[in-house]
Amino acid sequence: MLKNGYLIGIKRKLRIRTRVKKSLVTMTNGADKLSKPITVSLRNSYVKYFGKFYQKKILFIFGVQRSGTTALFHFLRKDKRIQTYNEFSELSVDGDEKLRLHPYPRLKKQFDRNLRPILLLKPLVESQNANRLLEEFPNSRGIWIYRNYKDVANSNLNKFGINNGIKNLTPLMNGDSSNWRSENVSDDIKEIVAKYFSSDMKPHDAAALFWYVRSSFYYSQGLNNSNRILLMRYESFVKEPYKKLSRVYQFLGEKIPETLKENDIHGRSIKKGEDINLSPEIETLCDGLYQKFEKEYSSKNNSF
């Protein structure tokens, strides 16, 4: 009798959880049609009374700037179930660059107030804290997207200016621990940067070296051994976006919407930096790490 009652209670909770999730999604999709006071009131009521039955999913996009993170973000934001937060958002701290995330207790409150079943964040300047974010938010997962270092260096300087690589490495050389560029960088990586850095070094060498620093966090944090991190190869994504996105949704335990079949991405950016001239030492350094990514991606994702 007790066993049957227990099972009935479990089934009832599961039914409530399913109804609440569907109701939240319906409310979210129609929220724009409601006045702000009504939307806020409904949201607060649902969170207060049904939050214990419903836990939203959180997806972080990690990696190095100019690695295709925006293209992935652009595709995923087409899903109406997903609330997206770009690098500059209400989750960002007001500072010099307005890129750092709020303290985690405040983030948790902001997440709880959101009705969407899936939250998507692209906190690239927090990639050195990927492990901490996954620990703080147990219902979260992450994608680490990587791209050829020459293409990243070329794109970085084209986007942010010819001296951006040197600008990015300077806080690290100055030991500025308050700057995201030097936060959590290991002593081994600092020694490598110190060996090659100079204020008049070749711009593309500096940009490639910064790619090396940021990409190294994937391995230094042990993310390669985490089942909550999905490794994505930029070049494969732009060639077969729907297939790769299907793998992302499988990773999330969600069904991919048909709307994502629309393909507005191209692969013209692949190998755009193949002709840039790097110093042999920098190229050897970066290529060694890139080949490590390639080998891992091939072994883990031969069907992805």
Structure description:
This protein has a five-stranded parallel sheet, sandwiched between helices. 51% of the residues lie in helices and 9% in strands. The relative contact order is 0.13. The chain is globular and about 50 Å long. It is an alpha/beta fold and 304 residues long. The longest helix has 28 residues, at 2-29. Strand 2 (82-85), helix 4 (104-113) and strand 3 (118-121) form a beta-alpha-beta unit. It contains 13 helices and five strands. It folds into two domains: 1-50; 55-300, Rossmann fold, CATH 3.40.50. The model has no long low-confidence stretch (mean pLDDT 84).
Which secondary-structure class do the elements indicate? alpha/beta
Q: Class of the largest domain, according to the CATH hierarchy? A: Alpha Beta
Distance between the termini: 48 Å
Number of DSSP-assigned strands: 5
| Low-confidence blocks of residues | none
Q: Work out the helicity level.
A: 40-55%
- Report the biggest beta sheet as strand number plus sense, adding barrel if it closes: 5 strands, parallel
Write the layout of secondary structure elements.
Layout: H1 2-29, H2 36-50, E1 57-63, H3 69-76, E2 82-85, H4 104-113, E3 118-121, H5 130-136, E4 140-146, H6 149-160, H7 164-173, H8 187-196, H9 203-215, H10 217-220, E5 229-233, H11 234-239, H12 241-252, H13 280-300
Parallel strand pairs: 1-3, 1-4, 2-3, 4-5
